[in-house]
Amino acid sequence: MSRLIIVSNRVSVPDNKGAAAAGGLAVALQAALAERGGVWMGWSGKSSGDIEPEPLVLTQDGNITYALTDLTQTDVEEYYQGFANRVLWPICHYRLDLAEYGRKEMASYFRVNRFFAHRLAPLLEPEDTIWVHDYHLIPLAAELREMGFKNRIGFFLHIPWPPADVLFTMPVHEEIMRGLSSYDLLGFQTKYDLENFAGCLKREGMGVENSPGHFSAHGHNFRGGAYSIGIETAAFAAFARKAAAHSVVRKARQSIEGRDLIIGVDRLDYSKGITQRIDAFERFITNNPAHQRRVTYLQITPKSRSEVPEYEAMQHAVAEQAGRVNGAIGTVDWVPIRYINRSISRPVLAGLYRLAKVGLVTPLRDGMNLVAKEYVAAQDPDDPGVLVLSRFAGAARELKGALLVNPYDVDDTANALTRGINMPLEERRERWRGMMDHLLENDVSRWCDVFLADLRAE
Ligand code: GDG
């Protein structure tokens, strides 16, 4: 079996906290690497200031080599905070209004990809299979091809892919499409993303789809498919069962004093629909006075990308909104929304999912959304909670037992909350069983195996 080389913007170097603490994707990729032997290369997360980064720092763990590089401060600002997170991220999440184009940032994005290719090159052997992850590194294969590498190279996009009318607002969309066309296999989260990609290729005659999933563009033949990412379902379910006894989870249970718990868990990001969700919760309470003082909504929202102005602004907006709603509908002995603006440990998170009667997952646009899957996996089979899920999350294509909502429609989400909170046990069990069976079968190891088998197939 040929070696596997994974390249992603950030690398999960194992620590001593154990598999569950690391999260499903890191665990699955580490398992794939351990099975085949190989390298995981990416950015260390550190800046080298204004001097050229030192050579790659290599760490050996069994037959896996972790290869990390620093980036200059300019590249951190222009490539990562700039083009990746202020152009590609908003565009792929349909937020044309938030995209900030700058020539320097665009140039830096391509320059850093070339830099990655040059750092990776000495580690590569002819038979290696290369798997590149996510929107930060779209041009990497093109750079490697330019250097003469003939290896099989696959790419998986964790976020949505937009339709042509959205993508084409981006000045460098052709270079980006050319970059994607240099891979042998492109993996998207859902078939809608794949269809959008095919539509982008066709729109300006950049390429053709010869047969479903088989493309020719920019002088290269390649394939594309939908590979919906999963979680480590069985392990997470066992983890949540144990976590119910965790002291913090026990305290949380006592503190809600028999009220029903609604939980939301999201990185602080405008794609996650947090402000619309808080509005929907307020509407749910005002529409259902009987539920006043009988529910608690816990929103866990670790800070993310705080250096990017849109994220910093959002931090203030969400905190203010949660405060306003608590002021408007709270009572002297009831705080309706508990808003936590930092990360909590994975065992506590698992235990809280299990405690919650409703998992409220309402992104405005999301590649997949693993929180939805974790919430389902964490439930007690005898008394499962209800998943309220945005129809614009990739997960909605799979989780048929969820109550699907349009997150832009506050009443729709508020009504789903009412239905979820009041849902009879039999219906909850039936909906949950279908979703859980699907998640057990389509877990993250399967996702990894299927993608790699397809990448290796001629
Ligand atoms: C991207 C795509 C796609 C969150 N808060 C805490 C915490 N988390 C963990 C969750 C979950 C992960 O972070 C978030 O994953 P999501 O899938 O929901 O969202 P993104 O971060 O936007 O991920 C997404 C994903 O890539 C994979 O392909 O599904 O669409 O946007 O695992 O549990 N973990 C801990 N404490 C927290 O406070 N420990």
* Number of self-contained structural domains: 2
Oligomer: single chain
Provide mean pLDDT, rounded.
Answer: 94
Give the strand line-up of the largest sheet.
Answer: 3-4-2-1-5-6-7-10-9-8
CATH architecture assignment of the largest domain? 3-Layer(aba) Sandwich
Number of strands: 16
Structural class: alpha/beta
Are there runs of 5+ residues with pLDDT below 50, and where? none
CATH class of the largest domain: Alpha Beta
Which fold does the CATH topology of the largest domain refer to? Rossmann fold
Our Rg estimate from Cα atoms comes to 22 Å
Q: State the end-to-end distance.
A: 15 Å
Helix fraction, binned, reads 40-55%
EC number: 2.4.1.15
Pathway: Glycan biosynthesis; trehalose biosynthesis
Organism: Rhizobium leucaenae
Subunit structure: Homotetramer.
Label this structure with key terms.
globular, ten-stranded mixed beta sheet, Rossmann fold, 458 residues, binds GDP-alpha-D-glucose, 16 strands, alpha/beta
